Amino acid sequence: MKENYVNKLLKSLSEDIQLKENNWTKERTYHSLGCYASKKWVANIVPAELLSRSIKQAVESIATLSEGGIFYEKFPDEILSPNYGDNWGRLANYIELNNRAIAQMNFDRTCCGMLSCIKLLPAIPPSAKSWANCVIISQIFPNIFGDSYNKGPFEENSIYGIKLNAGYSDNVISYNIADKITPEEQIQAFNDLAHFRGIKTGFRTVISADQIKVAYPNGSDETFSWCNPEHVELYINESVKLMNLGFESMFIDSAKHIGGYDCENYTGVGDLPEYPQMQYILNEIRARSGKTTISFVGEKSSDDFERYRLMGLNAGTDFITGDDFFAVKELSEKLKYNRVYAPGVEIENDNYEGGISYEQRLHRINTALFAYYNASDKLPSFMQTNDIFPLRYDTNTHHIMMTNPSYSMDGSPESHWENLFAKDDGRFYNHKVAELFAHALCR
């Protein structure tokens, strides 16, 4: 039987593994309307209310929201990912959480972003009857511009530069407890808790060669090259390791331009894999992990549907926004026989720098959740942290991808969490998002 990583995480934090129903959660529970009223999550909140709680409280909240109506006094030993078939990614709603931005920021240091994601899980709506919700984690590998440090609000600390063969980012792992629970086990605990919530999980990665470094224990870092077979093998194996830790989706930055396609609009840095090479890589990740359920998502890979389907992708972004409900509905009908790959509805992407009102954002989410004739034909959709939990007025999604500022007034993580997000208006917006999901989840 698989080791119980959630219990191991609790013990590493000097917590007992006996769980109690959480009244704070019950007072804030929303649920789906209609046939699947057992699907529950917390809403009408601001993230600081969750992020300032303990991991034990977060696990108790997750247990309290059990879809089966059974409260588990100890977290179950074996949790399976929700089963929506091999091509679930063709229909899914992808919600990217910037785990670096919500990490613990103690003065100039950053850590524990995966633990913060665990704390936010109760506020992520679970999957629907006909399609999955999937959380995409922004950072998993060390970044090359100052990993584990936060800097000023305009100093580059881009999440788009990664280091392979160096384990996992100090920004997202709690190394204070690594002698009791390894980084890999911390990731597995997050995935088990997400799966218990009825949520799929994935991670963002980059493919621009000059944005990737290969680390060597006894030598200098080396710039990645797609012409180097050892580098390609490392890229595959690092991805397979993550799939074996419980992830089932990989969001591929700049995927549209693989093989030199439309490179006049390419904004990454460095060479990209060739088209047959990427086909091989994605096939190998599926084969070596033994998972037929992996969903590969390509950024902007959505204007030549057959090209991206044959590459091995299941969804692509940036083809249509949710601004025109009826255009999305007709596109859903047009593509309903494409069961492996489809372009997605974008609410917001990682390059968003502001300008969308709450009302426009809610309209786009409404379109993503309801613009179809049959729920089994819906298009995938793409949201950011900002679409569920609005950020403060003077920052935006792209800014916190490119920089890693602390918004703390006193150097404490609690102050950062309080000031990173919008307050009263953010709470009301979160309530309105929950109302939309409540009507969608029984479909």
Secondary-structure topology with pairs:
Blueprint: H1 5-12, H2 23-26, E1 29-31, E2 40-42, H3 47-51, H4 55-64, E3 93-97, E4 104-106, E5 109-111, H5 113-120, E6 133-137, E7 162-164, H6 183-196, E8 200-205, E9 212-216, E10 219-223, H7 229-244, E11 249-252, H8 275-289, E12 295-298, H9 305-311, E13 315-321, H10 325-334, E14 342-346, H11 358-370, E15 381-384, H12 385-388, H13 397-402, H14 413-420, H15 424-440
Parallel strand pairs: 3-6, 3-15, 6-8, 7-9, 8-11, 11-12, 12-13, 13-14, 14-15
Antiparallel strand pairs: 1-2, 4-5, 9-10
Descriptive account of the structure:
The protein is an alpha/beta fold and 443 residues long. The strands form 4 sheets. The chain has an 8-stranded parallel barrel. The protein has a 3-stranded mixed sheet with strand order 7-9-10, covered by helices on one side. Strands 1-2 form a two-stranded antiparallel ribbon. Helix 1 packs across helix 6, helix 5 runs parallel beside helix 6 and helix 7 crosses helix 8. The two termini are 34 Å apart.
What's a quick, concise take on this entry?
With 443 residues, the protein is α/β, with parallel strands linked by helices.
Largest beta-sheet characterization? 8 strands, parallel, barrel
Strand content: 5-15%
Unreliable runs: none
Give, in spatial order, the strands making up the sheet with the most strands.
3-6-8-11-12-13-14-15
What is the H/E order?
A: HHEEHHEEEHEEHEEEHEHEHEHEHEHHHH
From the structure provided, what is the oligomeric state, counting identical versus distinct chains?
Answer: single chain
The total beta strand count reads: 15
- Apparent shape: globular
Give the radius of gyration: 20 Å
What is the share of helical residues? Answer: 25-40%
**What structural class do the secondary elements suggest?**
alpha/beta
- Compute the number of helices: 15
- State the end-to-end distance: 34 Å
Mean pLDDT comes to 96
